[in-house]
Every structure is written in structure tokens, then in C-alpha cells.
Amino acid sequence: MELTALLLSRIQFAFTVSFHIIFPSFTIGLAAWLTVLEALYLWTGRPAYRRVFEFWLKIFGIAFGLGVVSGIVLGFQFGTNWSELSRMSGPIQGPLLGYETFTAFALEASFFGVLLFGRSRVPAWFYLFSTAMVALGTTLSAFWIMVNNSWMQAPVGYAVENGMFVPTDWPAIIFSRVVWVRFPHMLLAAYLTGAFCAAATGAWYLLRDRFTAEAHVMLRMGLGLAAVLVPAQILFGHLVGDYVHDYQPAKFAAIEGRWHDEQPAAEVLIALPDEANERNLYELKIPILGSLIGSMSFTSKEVGLTSFTPQDRPPVVIPFFAFRIMVGCGLVMLALAWVGSWLSHKGRVEHYRALLWLIFLSFPLPFIATLTGWFAAEVGRQPWTVYGVLRTAHALTPFLTTHSAAISLLVFCAVYTFIFAFGIYYIYRLLLAGPAGPLAVPPEAAIPNRPMSVIDEPTHEAVDALAAHRPISPVAPGE
Amino acid sequence: MILFWVTLLAISLLLYVLLDGFDLGVGMLFFLRRDEVGRRAMMNAIAPVWDGNETWLVVAAVILWGAFPLVYSVLLSAFYLPLLLMLAGLILRGVSFEFRAKALSLRWIWDAAFAGGSLVAAFVQGAAVGALVEGLPVQGVRYSGGEFGWFSPFAVLCGVGLCVGYALLGACWLVRKCEGDVLETAHRLIRPLALALLAFLVIVFVYALAEKFQVMQRWLERPYLLVFPLIGALAALVLARSLRQRWDALPFVMVAIIFAAAFGTMAISFWPYMIPFSITIAGAASPPASLDFMFWGGVFVFPLMLAYTVVSYAVFKGKAKPTAGHY
User: Fold this and answer.
1) Rounded to a whole number, what is the distance in Å from the CA of B131 to chain A's nearest CA?
2) Phi, psi (degrees; rounded to nearest 5) at A462
3) Which of residues 150-209 of B touch A (CB under 8 A)?
4) CATH of domain B2-314
5) Half-sphere exposure of B179 (CA within 13 A, CB side)
6) How many CB pairs under 8 A join A and B?
7) Which of A82, A356, A440, B152 could connect to A203 by a Cys-Cys bridge, CB 3.0–4.6 Å?
8) In angstroms, what separates the C-alpha of A11 from chain B's closest C-alpha?
9) What is the pLDDT of residue A1?
10) ipTM for the complex?
11) Distances (CA, A) of B19 to A322, A324, B92
């Protein structure tokens, strides 16, 4: 394949956006969880909550910083590499991202400073409020990004005038059916990412028999939350599939690995798509299930890729496998969350070392699921940038040279690899150090009404017993 | 409505220059202190607010995209390579805040990234403004100058000038926020930096006159523009006095006024163009449906953003504690 400015720009966007999504998908969930932990701490005064909070706050700081700096790049890239898109869709995408900045960035950036540095300077309620505002900011940011991306996936409420997409119906754009299944899907993915990272860390500490009180808080809250959210996520995943089926039939056919129209359609479980010969190799499929999944019918006709001219077809291999990897991760997470929660509820989880190992090793799953889900969505949208209206090739900056595009791709790869390596290393060191040590600000400052709360501090054994017998509400961070 | 958005864009840009200006400036001055105590004090003086400061760049960028998409697409694609440098600089300095605090033996990497990233970002911003003043080649709705069409001696001069200006803002901020040795170091720097900035402004003015920049015509047509340099000169006088009297809080305010005066001068000499002299404000504006939709964000949420900024500065007001614990 020839390295053109177009291909290099696509690789660059895919690389930078994939790098970026790792951090928000982690911090959106983590911010919500931190809010719950801080509220629980203020309510119960239990130092274990506070120690877990301060421990994850340090990790949050690194991940949030990486998310912020890698996010700025994306906004600029629309203009630098995709100037035709940004000029044409500016009247729609600009205001949407404008609202993201107005409602989210300023909120989270300002209160993030208070979160990291302000505990000794503000009253306890304001500190909790700041934590909640950071969480709200990250969520609002995700919302506007999903509105924006959903408009590119299924453009509505616009007219083309003077070579620009002019908005004609903002409510249709913001309250589009597509937004309201994809936004929850992304939000749930973020909460699951936070939940599994917390649970995996807790499992790791239990395996090493360290910080058991804090480990139980992490494991129990993480698994409990996941046990409820994974089924909800599977439901929303199905609803997202419904919109793809209705609005983006070529993408749907690529994900399904369906080359020809079928009635009733079979569901390809696994295969090796052969794009050159328009067929699947080593195919394993179940009859009729394809119609059932696509249209909730035993007899419906489902569209195949050959119904589209070759220049209107997306690549098949990437969406096909990315989707299956995502679903596989989801099913493994479901099993772990249910079994783990059940045993944790019975107070026996620390006796099943193999399960603890599996939970510990599961932390990459939500990240992989989020990334592969986005690969399926974005590669499947090709060859369009704005689906059905603006081709990716026409969205590119027309005078961008291969030379410039290659330099920028190399620079971004080098810088991101560098900061990613160090970021992961510093997070690893924080995990290794664990939630021990004195509190950064003694509890007196945090809860002025209960100056003697240190005396209530339960021993680790007592906290363990508490954690074993009293389930901590698993739904809280999702509220 | 167009006027409303131009105003908001101008406010965001000015806030960005003033706020991120001082923290980029502190970054550039970072290596003046070799001791860890001094460096940590400098870092603490900006750590709680830098992220909020940088947000104003994003605010300006999205207002530009939403309200003036033509200008957004032309400028960003024209400055492809310099913006790449700026982003790399902002990324490296941005992660340095967290990474530096976590690093042990490799702290020097993040010190270098912090100082170097700040310098590069500031230089690119200055050079871009310089290129804009000199005039960018534009044909129709697209930039037509090639990879290095923005590059000129004048752009480089402006890049250096903005570095000096940001460093001055940074020094004033340190005087305001720090105590002890760091305050003394920063205090000694203000005078030479202020003189260097003054020299730069004179050179730019003479250069622009000598090269007969089209922008300079404005000064002849609009003599009332002279009010801005006058405000700047007054602020410079107060600055000199505040240095002698050791009023720690005042130098920053005065330099901010000088910056605002320079900004106002430039904004009004561009009017009614956004990219002089090819794209006007009216010609670049989004359709009314977009501007009207954003208006509610501008009226209700924009003041809220200003409020968060005020709150976060109020929480961290006064001298930063050099030992203030990293959470």
C-alpha cells in the first residue's frame, strides 16, 4: 500500500484517538468512584475509604493528565489534517465541541486543581463537591463527544449550503436515537473499566496478602458494580447494533461477515474473511440466528456486502475481528463479575486464589473491549467520514504533503510512546507502594465536626470482618 | 450575533495569553533555579491552575471552529508543522507536572521537558501571530503558502518576542506567589525582561513600518489606536514604581495590562479582517443557526467558566507554600 498523506493522516488519527480513549475510559469511571468513596468517608468516617480514595487519586492524577494532553491534540487535528471536514462541518461539529469545552473542560480543569492540591484549603463539603464536579465534567465531556461522533455516524438535522453542513434541527442532532444508545454504551464502558481496574488491584493485593482492608473495599465495590453493569452493557451493546443495522447496513454486514444477501440469514460466529474473493474461510455459522439478531425475526432478509459497490464498502477484517474480541471480553468480564461477586458476598473470595489471579489478570479486558469497540465503529464507517455524505478522501487537507504527514505521525508516535511508557511505569510504582502511609491531610481537617474520628479507626481485622459480612452497595458509582 | 462571538473569542484568547502566558513563562525560567526547593516552589506556584489556564486555548479553538470554521480550517492547516511542535511542547510540559513529582532519578528528564516544552509552545504562538500580521497567502477558502509559507524573519522575531513577554509574566507571577530566594531571583529578572520586551516592541514597530506591512496603514487611518500604547506606557511606569516599592502583587497586574494593550492594538488593527487581508469576520462566520445555538452556551455557560476560574484562583490565593504537600 502506498504511503499517501491520506493514509498517514488516517493512521495518525487512529493512533492518537486510540491512545487518548484509554485514559478517559479509565478516568470517567474513576472520578465517579472517587466521589462515592469521598462521600462514604465523610458519612462513615472509616479511614479505609479515605486511604483508598487517596491512593486512587494519585493514579487518577497521572491518567487524567495523560488524557488532557492527548485530548488537545485531537481537536487541533481536525483542523490540521482534515481541514476540508472542519470547514464544511464546522457549523455543526464546532458548536458541539464548543459545548463540550464550555460545560466540561473548564469545570473539570478548575476543580481538578482543588482535588489534587486543595484538601487542606477548603472545607470538607467543598472538597466532596469538587470531586463530584470533576466527575460531572468528565461525563459531560463524554456526552458531547458521543453527540459529535454519532452525528458523523448517522448525520441528521442538516442541509448542505455553499459546501457547508448547515444545522437545521439541533434537537434532532442532540436527541438522535443513535446518541442515546451510544452515550450509555460508552459511559458503561468507562464505569466497567474503572470497576475492573479497582477489582484487579484489590485481587492483586489479596494475592500478596497486603493492604487487605483496602483490597476488600476495591474488590467488593469493583466486582459488585461490574456484576450489575456488564448485563446492562450487553443490552446497550445490542441496541447499538440495532442502530448500525438500520443506519449503516454496510458496516453491519462487515461486522457480521456476511458477503451475500441471505433470507433467513445465518450468524457467522467465527471465520477468516477473504476480502479479495468476497467470501469467508473456515466459517462456523448458525442458521437463522443472523436474522434473529439483526431484525428479531426468523425469516427476515439481511443485506450482504456484495449489495454495495466496492467503493462504498468498509474494510471487513478489522470490524469483523474487533467486534468479536469486544464481545469475548464482555463475556469473560460477565463471568468474572458474577462468580467473584457471589464468592465475595459469601466472604470466601480470598480462598480461591485461581479466581483472584483471573480477576487480577482481567484488568486489560475493559480497555481492549473499548478499543476494539471503537475500531469496529470507526473502521466500519469507512469509506465515509460523515456517513454517506463526505468521503474520508475528500475530508483531507488538500495540500497536505506526504512529507508533513509523515513527520507529524513520527513525532506523535515518539512523544506518545515516551509519555505512555513513563506514565504506566509511575502508575505501576504507585500500585506497588499501595494505599499505605499516613493520610496527606489528617482527618481532623477533613471532618471538622468529628475531631476525634481517628480514635474510631477500626483495626484492619475489624474492617476485614466488616467487608466480609456487610455488602457495600454495588450500584453507587453508577448513580 | 457575529459581534458577540468575536468578543467572546477575543476574551478567550486574551485570557489564554495572560493565564497560560505566566505558567509557560515560569516554565522558561525554570532552569534559573538549580536547587530542588526553588524548583518545587516554582512548580507549586502554578501546579493547581495550569490545566485550567490551558483550557482557554481549547475554548478559543472551539469558538473559532464553531463560529468561524473557515478561519479555523485555514489557520490550522497553514500552521501544520509549527502547531505540531506546539502540541508536542504542551504535551511534554503538561505531563511533567505529575511525572516530575513521581520521578526519582530521572527527574531531570521532566525538568527539561517542562522548560523546553514551555519555550517551544511560546515561540510557536508568537511566530504564528507574526506570520498572521505579515499576511498569510490564501486563495479562496484554502491556505496556499506551502509547508513553510508562514516562515519569515518577522515571524521568528515575534516568536522570540512572545517568549520574552511570557517570561516576564512568569517572573511577575513568581514575585506574586513565592517567597524567599525564588522571589528575589524573579524580582531581579523583571527589569531586564521588561526592557527586552520594550526593545522588541520598538523593533517590531520599526520593522513593520520599514517593510510597509499593510497592517500599518491602519495606524494612519485610525489614530485613536494610539490610546493602547499609551495605556501600555502608563502601566510600564506603574510597573517600575512597584518594583522599587516592592509591591509583590502589582507587577503581574501591570504586565497583564501591557499585554492587554498590545492585544487590543492588534485586534483593532486587524478589524474587520480575521486573516488580514483575505478573510473578514463576516465572511468567515458560521450560519446563524450555528451561532444562535452556541449563543446559550456563550451567555449562560461562559460566565460560569469565568466563575470556575475565579473560584480556583481564590482557593489558591496568596503566597504558595513551598512545602505544600502534593496531595
Assistant:
1) 17
2) -60, -40
3) none
4) 1.20.1630
5) 6
6) 252
7) A356
8) 16
9) 61
10) 0.85
11) 43, 47, 19
